[in-house]
UniProtKB/TrEMBL annotation:
Transmembrane stretches, start-end: 31-49, 230-252, 272-297, 309-334, 340-364, 424-442
Highest taxon listed in the record's lineage: Eukaryota
This protein's name: ABC transporter A family member 9
Family: Belongs to the ABC transporter superfamily. ABCA family. CPR flippase (TC 3.A.1.211) subfamily.
Gene3D superfamilies cross-referenced by the UniProt entry: P-loop containing nucleotide triphosphate hydrolases (3.40.50.300)
Keywords: ATP-binding, Membrane, Nucleotide-binding, Transmembrane, Transmembrane helix
Cited PROSITE patterns: ABC_TRANSPORTER_1, ABC_TRANSPORTER_2
Record has Signal as a keyword: no
Amino acid sequence: MTLREGLPLFRQQLTALLRKNLLLSWRNKRATFLHLFSSFFFILLIFSIEQSTKASKLASAQYKNITDPKAVASLPIPPCEDKFYAILPCFDFVWSGNQSRRVTNIVSAIMANNPGRPIPNNKVQSFGKPEEVDAWFMSHPLQVPGALHFVEKNATVISYGIQTNSSLEDKRGGVQDPTFSFLVPLQIAAEREIARSLIGDPKFSWGFGFKEFARPAIGGRVDESSGLSLMGPVFFLAFSMFGFVLQLGSLVTEKELKLREAMTTMGVYDSAYWLSWLLWEGLLTFVSSLFLVLFGMMFQFDFFLKNSFVVIFLLFLLFQFSMIGLAFALSSFISKSSSATTVGFLVFMISFITQTVTTLDIPYTKSQSIARRVVWSFFPPNTFSKGLNILFGATSTSSPGNSGISWSERVIRQTDDVISINEIYIWLVGTFFFWFALALYFDNIIPNASGVRKSIFYFLKPSYWTGKEGNKVKEGSICSCIGSVPRVEHVTPEDEDVLKEEILVKQQAMGGVVDPNIAVQIHGLAKTYPGTTKLGCCKRKKTAPFHAVKGLWMNIAKDQLFCLLGPNGAGKTTTISCLTGINPVTGGDAIIYGNSIRSSVGMSNIRKMIGVCPQFDILWDALCGEDHLHLFASIKGLPPASIKSIAEKLLADIRLTGAAKIRAGSYSGGMKRRLSVAIALIGDPKLVFLDEPTTGMDPITRRHVWDIIQESKKGRAIILTTHSMEEADILGDRIGIMAKGRLRCMGTSIRLKSRFGTGFITTVSFPENKNDGAGTSSEPLKRFFKEHLKVEPTEESKAFMTFVIPHDKEKLLTGFFAELQDRESEFGISDIQLGLATLEEVFLNIARRAELESATVEGTMVTLELESGISVEIPVGARFVGIPGTENAENPRGIMVEVYWQQDGSGSMCISGHSHEMQIPENAPVLYEPSSQVLGHGQRRVRGIVIDYESIN
Ligand SMILES: Nc1ncnc2c1ncn2[C@@H]1O[C@H](COP(=O)(O)OP(=O)(O)OP(=O)(O)O)[C@@H](O)[C@H]1O
């Protein structure tokens, strides 16, 4: 099948990615709805607040037309608590002139004759001079609304003065005018009592009336946009945060779940990836901005009605666009999608603070330097709030004209302004490009989910632009110092088949021989994860380099399934990651269908011909099985007309037709694995990597997937890793076992079993009614095995006895078993079974040897508890262990035991038991002898000697 390339592939990928974004938004309806329509709720909220404020204002006299003012005849001195802002305890008034008896009497009369409410003594404070009152005011602010100052000039003249706070005070829609609330009542009272005192008639009185002007409502009408202008900037910012956080979350999720990496492995163009997000978010932003302006107009806000529609719409649209750029840039620094909301909230808080500053016109005034304005404007919420300021100012009832800003007026700077709406547009577009460019840069230099990044000056290298040189990527964060990576020491393989393969590959590589039957040729592939030194604030964290793969040499033929086995941490996944370009190699190379994995051109060719089923399912929870296959098929470049039928066939093959339209998030583990296998097989790839494809599957499904894999072998090479020996046995044409980063053996299943298995396993069964047990009557049978084959039973019970017969006895087996069969009744045998060792045994043997190899270097010991009660320290993986101190005349070299090993749940080697004690043969070489027998705290503990018994047996 011809896959699409170049521009047609770019277009196809872009369409598929846009469709994916559409589906994700559609399936995440609640979030998308909020993104698009939250403006309605914000506008409704502002409208409601404004309406209630307006209603309370209209209830106050200030906002009413006074056509027929009422006269007030009596204005008593009010209690000080009536003052809007009074600090308690307070005084109704204070006075000075208390050295005059006459004045004191006048004040007493003012208090006693206050209409409707005689003033008690504790509500009045007296002083000698006005200066003393001023001094008292300084230390008692807001404790009194007014003061009277009396001077008795002579017997017929008493002068007085009044002090009140002259500012008008507003409280909950009411207005308190100090003149009429406090000044006039004090004046009336003072004049009344002075007159009575001078005239000498305590009943003297006169008529008084006070009437305010008939007037229209103060300010004409309530400013309808006051609520919007106050709260709008914050609300609009909060509204734009929905899109910001959702965008950030989507990008980080794709990175965190390695979905982005999976698409890259499938060959997605970075340009298509970014453009798809940009177009989709741009569309959502366009619609949400449009709705915001329409809702604003619907609620009849002057701001939306008087300013030009296009002017407002563009401000919201460009602001949200520049926030998309900022979200793209920040996404590179976040590795967990759960952090997106936190980052969004942080950006909102910062924006809120800077917006408040911008509302005060800082730094957009002539007194501020241009540099400060430029720096300030790089943060989009700042220019946005300046734009809102200008537009609110243009429609405020307090501004002359208040007719808003038309399209043609956008270029005009308003009086005292240093920036016009048009310049704000330019800033928003500029900052979008600035943040977007930074996003692309950060995307390349910040390590991806596999810890891989480009050099910080990658864009300065011509090879980046021409794509001709190596696929140069680095590992580790940009803040960590990576030490020099030590070379992997070349070790000649112990296994003759591995050595033969290495020599062959080297010869082919040197001679430039390209065998047409070879799909993958691996040349000394090595991978070392660099040790890093992270400089924290308090300490330095250092990790040593780790050699995960230490030089692999092998050929993988076309039409062959190569099965890579190995314990946890053997380096299987790392090998696959290197071959698929996810991780850069440290040494060596691999040629896949003639393309080097070290070249970026080679890698992009390789991506077109491989399929990968990663170890962990990389799927979108919200997309269904069918969506995944359509998306990856499009990314691969399959002709659009064929995608539907190919997806249907693959779904049928993996038995997911019924679940094709169900979201992958609700699939079982096995269903997800099957979908991952199907994704790997899309587009008929020439090389398929299957990393533990059947993990988590039930036995029936597993067999079915084996059938699929078996069928897919035709015409392609498959590299499969697994922990299931049965799977390897059934599927693997060739099996390689890796341990500790090295290939330990390779060959067909039979070859491995015969070379690395302990030999032939014979199980002899006894009839059920045999009542004298395995004791005495089994002795002749044991003797028969011992005499002919020199083997003892490894397991025995009433029902059966198992013997392991070494390979070197193979020639004797025909005669031996013929005689055994003839003497069945003599030995009381009911059945005899003979088989080769299992692959599991081979695997354990190889893993054990690898453990022993590193344990002897690193000194990793475990304790073996012998049945005799002795504890022996032995290296992990040691099979035959001699016990020091057991030497005597009968056993000149002492005794030894065979240690049985198995893997625990985490894949580590642990002791499962040991054999009977036996004599160490004279000719058995010592493989490893510990340097000291004395261990910690002076306590004597025995350290076992590792005997190479296998070499003589
Ligand atoms: N990014 C990394 N940095 C440092 N060490 C790593 C990194 N990735 C893997 N390793 C180490 O490399 C070794 C090989 O890992 P790898 O995943 O290839 O093993 P594996 O054979 O696939 O094991 P499993 O069967 O558990 O998947 C392990 O010891 C692992 O801890």
